[in-house]
Amino acid sequence: MQESLDPKDWEEFEKTAMEMVRDIVRFHQTMREKPVWQRPTAQALSDIRIPESGHSDLPSIYQEFKQSILPYAKGNHHPAYWAWVEGTGSPTAMMAEMLGAAMNSNCNNGDHIAMYVDQEVARWLRDSLRLPEEGVITFTSGGSLSNLTALTVARNSLDVADFRKEGVSSLRSKLIVYASIETHSCVRKSVEMLGLGSENIRYVKVNDSYQLDTIALTEQIRQDRSAGHTPFCVVANAGTVKTGAIDPLDDISEICERENLWFHVDAAFGIFARLIPEYQDSLKALNQADSIAFDLHKWMYVPYELGCVYVKKPTLLTKSFSIEADYLSVHDRGLAAGPDPLSNSGIEMSRGFRSLKVWFSIKENGVDGFRQMIGKNIRQAHYLGQRISETPNLELLAPVSMNIVCFRYNPSNGTFSNDELNELNKELLMRLHERGKVAPTYTTLNGVYAIRAAIVNHRTQIEDLDLLVKETIEIGNDILNETKQEG
Ligand SMILES: *Cc1c(COP(=O)(O)O)cnc(C)c1O
């Protein structure tokens, strides 16, 4: 009978533990030499099966990990990864995660150091991003939870019903949310979960730069009011997921002010462009936002997961979430003293020591370090956009406004229909992945299939982007030749 889950032989354990640390440091150091992605092999998929009974020793489990799990990572740690919007993480933040796991603090409540590190990191973020001091930041598992948290606060701030008590059952008119058609799908999910119904989101059209059309927004609000509905919130984008477009935040903020609507901004990654002088104007109106959702696991390069929600009026946050529970009341002294439980400011209760990886990263790099990396990624996106514009057979599909580039292979002799080009580019993307040298992903823009690179990668160098152009052309030409032979 085992006494606990601790190692029977601590010296043996330490040997394996040291090997793990050495290997994982090496993994980071040498990743450029390895494929950005490879499909898990049938062998790996069979190796990971957990047997019915029996147990193994740590060294052999670790060997299995090295053989069948580690090589088949998603790839977002790699310099040539620009898929979806997925951050790289950093070696320091990785080690911080391990140290945080060692402490294993539940950061909901209590008088212990992690609670204060959390508060300090939240304050640092608010001040470095120059958000108004009256507001607070709390941590979530990511942008989706942050948007849900913010929209819950927005809904509950309305005086048309006591939502916490009555839900939406006593509503006499429909509550309407406005967002551009480019808005992330998690916003719709939030509205559905809030019981407001997805048909009560008005998807407003965008201009040629994929920014919300404020004239259409104003007109839609007018129509809804005259139909007896209750407009209550605009969700603006500071960096859309598809093209990185920044909605006209100044104008939207004014409309919200005039119409008395909640001004929420989904700034999942875009908020960090605030560190760059060129974006001060277009992101200035974030100061007016009632709430902002953003992620640290994207453009702050910390490992998954970590999101933030900023709420300008902290009392509204606690009004939405605080709940009396005798087993959670804060005492005057002892372990049960300390800050108000974080479950009073959000959906989740138990939570890891999420802020430690940020604390390490900030101490290591300062705000200047992040400014440099983010500025670099923006310049790289503009460079890639420029290269695509200049390269025959490549077509830039959206203006590069931040760190996202959408393009396609489009042979200039122009014999392909749009459907054929969509097919061709989808095939091209799959082959890019299978070659394992570069990993962009995709989106569709007005029915056009686009290859899309979202650069939130501190490791990317210009040569990686040159390789993306080279590979795209090569594979595109291959497919073109194959279709010629078939045709
Ligand atoms: C990534 C993203 C989200 C969702 O955030 P998660 O952290 O993945 O939950 C929402 N909006 C935008 C613009 C995003 O890029």
Helix and strand arrangement:
Elements: H1 10-29, H2 42-47, H3 58-69, E1 81-82, H4 91-103, H5 113-128, E2 136-140, H6 143-156, H7 163-166, E3 175-180, H8 185-193, E4 201-204, H9 214-226, E5 230-237, H10 249-259, E6 262-266, E7 291-295, E8 307-311, H11 314-321, H12 356-390, E9 394-396, E10 404-409, H13 418-435, E11 439-445, E12 448-454, H14 462-486
Parallel strand pairs: 1-11, 3-4, 3-5, 5-6, 6-7
Antiparallel strand pairs: 2-8, 7-8, 9-10, 10-12, 11-12
Helix pairs in contact: 4-12, 5-12, 6-8, 6-11, 12-14, 13-14
The protein binds pyridoxal-5'-phosphate.
Pyridoxal-5'-phosphate binds next to helix 6.
Question: What is the C-alpha radius of gyration, as a whole number of Å?
Answer: 25 Å
Ligand species? pyridoxal-5'-phosphate
What is the average per-residue confidence, as pLDDT, rounded to a whole number?
96
Distance between the termini: 71 Å
Strand pairing plus helix content: what structural class?
A: alpha/beta
Helix-strand topology string: HHHEHHEHHEHEHEHEEEHHEEHEEH
The order of strands across the largest sheet is 2-8-7-6-5-3-4
